[in-house]
Amino acid sequence: MLNVTELEAYYGESIILNQVNLQVDKGQVVCLLGRNGVGKSTFLKSIMGLVATPKGSIRFDGSEMISRPSYQRARQGIGYVPQGRDIFPQLTVEENLLLGLEVSGGKGAIEQTYELFPVLKTMLKRKGGALSGGQQQQLAIARALVSKPKMLILDEPTEGIQPSVIQDIGRVIKYLKSEGDITILIVEQYLEFVTDVSDYYYVMDKGRIVLEGRVEDLNQEEIQKKIAI
After folding, report:
1. pTM of the model as a whole
2. pLDDT, mean of residues 141-166
3. Confidence at residue 85, expressed as pLDDT on a 0 to 100 scale
4. Domain-wise residue ranges, the chain
5. String of b and e for 141-164 (b: at least 16 CB within 10 Å)?
6. What is the pLDDT, as a whole number, of residue 107?
7. Positive or negative CA dihedral for 51, 57, 63, 68?
8. For 42-87, how does the pLDDT look when each residue is reduced to its tens digit (9 = 90+)?
């Protein structure tokens, strides 16, 4: 589904990603771990075409994406939830969700997102900025899902939200995985969440992949040493 090879990314003249190789197979949930500032979010932005990537390859669903603009990558079937959620605070919950349909030309699955996140259906007329952090995260994920993407990319979905909402997000990820219609790539630091929802993991340090493996074989003590601040 997603095959990234020898990828380099820059901010100005500073190299952030150095020959990164990462693969996500169709139907998998893959997590990218690492300390703050090692390049994880930049990697996701690279996939979406939001930073300069002069070298390497990003193949998605059989097509090379490295030179395509961001909107084409979204239309190809990649749903992206950035760190900080990035919802529209002055728009209602319903308006935020309707904007998610723009990617698919107005065709999507809003009703299904209400089933996944029932709390949103009770808040349709509420402004996005009036929601709690956890509710905003649910809205951001729902907005990415309404266009029925082939792949969902989540940047730190558990950051700064309460345990009950983390459980809700984990439940949704496991449900989507069981349905088999979507592939998921997550940047995360909450190890317990990773082991609960993921199939495979990568660890990044200083812009390189330094460790990878199946989650069932994950050595928590070893990983914790590599991701601890």
Report:
1. 0.90
2. 92
3. 72
4. 2-84+149-227
5. bbbbbbbbbbbbbbbbbbbebeee
6. 56
7. positive
8. 999 999 999 989 999 999 999 999 999 998 998 899 999 998 778 8
Between CA 46 and CA 52 the distance in angstroms is 7
What tokens appear for 220 in the block? Answer: 């928590």
> What residue spans of 77-157 are helical by DSSP H?
93-100, 110-116, 118-121, 133-145
pLDDT at 170 over 70: yes
Distance separating the N- and C-terminal Cα atoms of the chain: 32
Six-digit token string for 101: 């349909």
Q: What are the distances in angstroms from CA 35 to CA 28, 184, 228? A: 23, 21, 6
Q: By C-alpha distance, which of 210, 209, 74 is closest to 152?
A: 74
Q: How far is Cα 47 from Cα 224, in angstroms, rounded to an integer?
A: 26
> Cα–Cα–Cα angle for 202, 152, 132, nearest 5°?
100
- Residue 212 in tokens: 């990878």
pLDDT of residue 225: 78
Structure tokens at 95: 């308006």
pLDDT digits (tens, 9 = 90+) for 90-147: 999 999 998 888 765 555 678 888 889 999 999 999 999 999 999 999 999 999 999 8
* Dihedral-angle region of residue 84 (phi above 0 means left; psi in -120 to 50 means alpha; beta otherwise): left
Of the candidates 125, 153, 133, which has an alpha carbon nearest to the alpha carbon of residue 141? Answer: 153
Name the β-bridge partners of 33: 203
Q: What is the CATH number of domain 2-84+149-227?
A: 3.40.50.300
